[in-house]
Each structure stands twice: as C-alpha cells, then as structure tokens.
Design brief:
The complex is a heterodimer. By secondary structure, chain A is mainly α. Helix content of chain A is 77%, strand content 0%. Chain A has a domain of 178 residues: MetI-like (MetI-like fold, Orthogonal Bundle). In chain A, helix 9 packs antiparallel against helix 12. The longest helix of chain A is centred in the N-terminal third of the chain and has 45 residues. Chain A is flat, with a radius of gyration of 25 Å. By secondary structure, chain B is of the alpha+beta class. Chain B folds into two domains: 236 residues, P-loop containing nucleotide triphosphate hydrolases (Rossmann fold), CATH 3.40.50.300; 71 residues, Nucleic acid-binding proteins (OB fold (Dihydrolipoamide Acetyltransferase, E2P), Beta Barrel), CATH 2.40.50.140. Chain B is 27% helix and 33% strand. Chain B has nine helices and 18 strands. In chain B, helix 3 packs parallel to helix 5 and helix 4 crosses helix 5. The radius of gyration of chain B is 24 Å and the shape is globular. Classes of the chains: A mainly alpha, B alpha+beta.
C-alpha cells in the first residue's frame, strides 16, 4: 500500500512540476528571443566597426575620448543623479505628509498626486511646454495679471529638463514610498513618542530605518528609468549640446545609421543602469538582522 | 477600598473630561480617581470608550473639555513624550529594527541615563520579566508573550508615574494570557506602581484588578471592586457582562440569579420548577440547563451533587442570592 501511495505522490509532484514549466515556458522563450538575444548581439556588435574584420575597442575609445561624446555621458550621469536625488527627496516629503498629516488638503493631494501617472508622456510634456515656454501660459498670465514681462527660461536647458523629469518621477516615487510608510503601524510611532522621542527623533530613529529600503528602491527605479530617457530630453532640449545618451543613441541609430556605435552607446547606458541595478539588488536581497525570522 | 483611600491623594485624576470624535462618538463628563499603587481596569465591550479614555491619559488624543492630573499637576496639554505615563499597546509594538537591548535602552538614552546605570537597570528589568539572555535578539525572533514582556519592561524602565496597558494580552494564547496576568500582578505588587488597564475580557478584569470600571456606550455603568461588581451589579448591563447570569422576568422587574447560586432538589419546595434539558460535565462542576416554562435556567452544580440526575427529570430550583432590577431601570 505504501508503495502505491508513494508512487501516487511522486506522480502528482511530477505533474505539478510539468505544468509549472509549461506556464513559464512561453514567457521564457519571448524573453530569450527579444531580450537576451538582442543584448548578446548588441554587445558583440559594439566591439566591431563597419567594413572591418574582427574585434575592436574603437567605438568605446570614441565615446570615452571624443570630448563631445564624453560630455554627453557625464551630462547624462549628472541629470540622472540630480533627478533621482531630487525626486526622492520631494517624494519622501510628500509621502510623509500624506501618511502623517490627516487633513482635507492632504486627503485631496492624496487623491490627486497619482493623476500624472495616467497622462500619456508626450501629452504631458507638450502641456508643460505650453505652460513654461517663454511665450507660454505663465509668461502671458504674468503680463496679463501683473503687467510684468516674465520669461521662465525653462526651455532648451537643464532646468527645464529636470523640471519635467520631476513632474514624472515624484508621483511615482511617492507611490512606492507611501506603500512603505503605510506599513509602519501608528503604534510603533506612538510608543516611540511615549518613551520620550520628539517628532524629529521619531523620524530619524524609527521612520527612516523602517522605510529606507523602499526609498532606495524608488531612487534606483527613477535612476534606471531616466538613463534611457528619450522623449522628455528630445522635446525639451532639442539638439542642444551636451545631449542625453538617449538622444545620442537616436542620432547614431536613426540619423547616422551607425549600428555599431549605436550598439556601443546602448552598452554604455546598460552599464550605467547596472550600477543602480546592483544597488537595487543589494538593498533588496540584503536581509538585515532584524528582518530574519 | 473607598474607606482606606479617602485620606490618600489620588495619583491620577480624570476631572469632568470630554473627548468627542468628529463622528459624534466619544466619552463625556468622565470622572475617575486612581490612587497610588492601585490597579484599575476599564472593562467593556469594544467601542465603549475605554481605549479612548486610556489614550487621553497617554496623550495620544487631545481632550475637548475637563482635565487630567497626575499628582495634582495637569497633563492635559502635554504631548505624549512629556507625560509621566508609559503605555503598553495591544500589538507587540517593539521596534523591529532594534535589538531587545536597544528597544529597552532607547527611552533611557533619550533621558541621558549614564551607561553603567542603564545597563544595570536593563539587566534587573530583564530578570524581573524573566527574559535574561534575550538582549541581542530582535523582536521578530521572540514569541508574542515574550515580546509583550519586553514591551512591559521597556515601559517600566522609564519609571512612569502611571502605567497604561491597552488590551496587552488579548493577542496572546489563552495559556500565556493567564501566565502574563499572574506576572503582571506580581510585578505591580513588587513595584507598587499605579496601573490603568483596559480590557474587554471580564475574567481578566476580575483576576487582576483592585477596582473595575465597567463601561458601556461611553458611560461608566459601575465602579467597584471585583467582588462588589460581581455580587452587586447595579445595572442589568453589568449583571449580564460580568460572569454568567440568569434573568427572569417578573411583573415588576427582572430577577437575576447567578448559575452557581442555584441548587437542584426533588419535590416542590423550590423557587422554580422545570425539567432538565441538558447536563454538561465541565470538569469539577456540571452545567445543568433547566427548562422552566419558556425560560432556560442555567445552573452550575458540583459534580458530586449530580449523581442520580438525568435529562428529563422533574426538578425544583432554589437560590440563595439574587439581584433585582425594577422595570424602570431596564432599557
């Protein structure tokens, strides 16, 4: 009898395993075909030059020594780091406000702040452009209402690009951080107040340690999302130098049709992303002592 | 209690206190004196306002009217961190990212207690709650009961004038709960600390309290020692909420008799007559349900007195103690 039962259990387990593989397989094949293969292909291609045989570092030498291209890389890093830091700081402040201030205003903001997530990117960018350009809504209102000639000077420069990036990323980060803050029970904070901690002390000793992981995750998401940003820089910056790498990639691919250099830009962007991917994986996988059961 | 304490000044006074929520719920005109070394329990069903009162003492809710004083000083306007109270919450709210030692040391560090003194006090407190050796562990590595011991230790280390406990044991297993009860009584007696305890568990309230405040719908139904409240409930709500009670309608009111006050006999000399519906033996006593007309009367009878009785037997019930609630006091 026990043999029969054991065989039955084995068969059942094998069937479960097979159906699990069957469910995973389609997604796996798609990933293999349209993600893994192109990546490998691009990496290989980035080490070649058109019309020449064999392996070469020429493309990378070009991007890292040509002052214009190097400036693009450094500019991209600058914009992405500033965007990540600012949107994380603003989003953290917003999320804290929404979590701990219970008022009509906070309730209203809590309902409104996700709206940007539902507006298609291009639409949003054009809307903002119409508002902030030197002949835009702000400028006209200033003239109309106060008789002042005011030009925001936010087009074709970094300030405008950062403004737009924050417009997109603050709600997103705030959403992630809000979820983390919602997971901190009131009684944790009340008990800290109870034993004598003031508000600032509660923030430093309770809220930050309990939410920092998700704050880091939000920051890395913003970082990674913006390394490959194209629409925003393209519409706000046009062809102003230095360029974001997304535009640089577009130029190599679409304007110059230089697939090898385009591949090299892609790999460079991927490497920049992988820095934050490491931070992300590290902060996610590192189980702090207190999280172990 | 009242005669003993008239000469002693109250530790905690709640004076004509009102706290209303936006939705209209809340408590109004609450008056309560708690004396030094006393353990007072606020007992009532959920939503009766007991936790509201506790939270106004702790400073987690602002009061709308009246005052709260400790040793004669008003604390009504102080924020929680400035009040000489310490609260133990229902959820084991140890800070998960801090070790047990850090949890215990946190409040003392804020008070700038010298390190040597702090270490020594933490060790003594861990000994008192039976948790020596857990200093380096994290809260998630402890059981619920252990976490609540640490939470109590954390509050006691700050030497509060009044210790507030908000259903501290209700998330624990029945067995641990009883054990924690006993330990709380021991610790309370050892330290002579003033305690306000909130619970919806009447057995727990009976077991630990010097005095019980029975609450219902934001109102004090009765304040008294456990024995007063059990033996002489002043309202039908109290009679019903504390222990088990049989209610018998009579033309001028309601007669209430506890199951253990009833005895069974054969013949017709008793106060009530009926026949036995069920007999359940529950250890040292048996619960006998007797059908008397439309009513079912519950009697708790010693096991040795159950010999010879069977379901269906005609029975006569007599009782020694009763409470009477005249019709006008019945809602």
């Amino acid at each position: 009898m026990s043999d029969i039962l054991q065989n039955h259990a084995k068969r059942k387990k094998r069937n479960q395993l097979l159906s699990a593989y069957a469910l995973v397989l389609p997604a796996f094949i798609v990933v293999l075909l349209i993600v893994a293969y192109p990546i490998v292909n691009s990496v290989i291609r980035s080490f070649t030059v058109r019309g020449q045989e064999g392996f070469t570092l020429a493309n990378y030498v070009y991007f890292f020594t040509e002052p214009r291209e190097l400036a693009n890389i450094l500019y991209t890093l600058f914009v992405v780091v500033v965007t990540s830091v600012l949107s994380t700081v603003f989003a953290y402040a917003l999320a804290l406000y929404l979590r701990f201030v219970k008022s009509r205003v906070s309730l209203l903001i809590g309902r409104l702040y996700l709206i940007p997530r539902f507006i298609p990117g291009m639409v949003a960018i054009y809307a903002v452009i119409v508002t902030i350009r030197d002949t835009g809504v702000i400028s006209r209102l200033a003239l109309l209402l106060f008789g002042v000639e005011f030009q925001p000077a936010l087009m074709f420069n970094t300030a405008g690009l950062l403004t737009m990036n924050l417009w997109f990323n603050i709600p997103f980060s705030a959403m992630l951080i809000s979820a983390a803050l919602a997971g901190i029970p009131d009684s944790m904070i009340e008990s800290a107040r109870d034993v004598g901690a003031g508000r600032l002390c509660v923030f430093r000793t309770m809220i930050v340690p309990m939410s920092i992981k998700d704050v880091m995750v939000a920051a890395t998401f913003v970082f990674m999302g913006n390394v490959g940003g194209f629409t925003t820089p393209y519409l706000i910056m046009g062809s102003v130098q230095p360029k974001m790498l997304g535009i640089s990639l577009f130029d190599q691919f679409a304007k110059y049709a230089d697939m090898e250099r385009a591949a090299a830009v892609s790999v460079i962007m991927f490497l920049i992303c992988s820095v934050s991917a490491v931070v992300y994986i590290y902060s996610n996988l590192k189980e702090r002592a207190w999280e172990k059961q | 209690m009242a005669e003993i304490t008239t000469n002693i000044k109250p530790k905690l006074r709640i004076i004509d206190m009102t706290k209303r929520y936006k939705n209209g719920d809340g408590v109004e005109h609450i008056n309560l004196d708690v004396y030094p070394g006393e353990l007072v329990t606020m007992l009532g069903p959920s939503g009766c306002g007991k936790t509201t009162i506790l939270r106004t003492i702790g400073g987690f809710l602002d009061i709308d009217d009246g005052d709260i004083t400790i040793d004669g000083q008003s604390i009504a306007l102080l924020s929680p961190e400035k009040r000489p109270t310490a609260m133990v919450f229902q959820s084991y709210n140890l800070w998960p990212h801090m070790s047990i030692y850090e949890n215990l040391a946190f409040g003392m560090k804020l008070r700038k207690v010298p390190k040597e003194q702090m270490n020594q006090q933490i060790l003594e407190m861990l000994k008192m709650v039976g948790m020596i050796g857990s200093e380096k562990k994290f809260p998630s590595q402890l059981s619920g009961g252990q976490q609540q011991r640490i939470a109590i230790a954390r509050s006691l280390l700050l030497k509060p004038e009044v210790l507030l406990l908000d259903e501290p044991f209700s998330a624990l297993d029945a067995k641990i709960r009883v054990q924690m009860r006993e330990e709380l009584i021991r610790i309370q007696q050892e330290l002579g600390i003033t305690v306000v305890f909130v619970t919806h568990d009447q057995e727990e309230a009976m077991a630990i309290s010097h005095r019980i405040v029975v609450m219902n719908k934001g109102v004090f139904e009765q304040v008294g020692t456990p024995i007063e409240i059990y033996d002489h409930p002043v309202t039908r709500f109290v009679a019903d909420f504390i222990g088990e009670m049989n209610f018998m309608e009579t033309p001028d009111g309601i007669r209430a008799v506890r199951p253990e006050s009833l005895s069974l006999s054969r013949g017709s000399q008793g106060d009530l007559h009926g026949h036995i519906r069920t007999i359940m033996v529950l250890g040292h006593y048996a619960e006998v349900n007797v059908q008397c007309g439309d009513a079912v009367i519950k009697c708790n009878v010693q096991r040795d007195q159950m010999a010879g009785w069977a379901v269906g037997d005609e029975v006569s019930l007599s009782y020694t103690k009763e409470q009477f609630f005249a019709t006008e006091t019945v809602e």
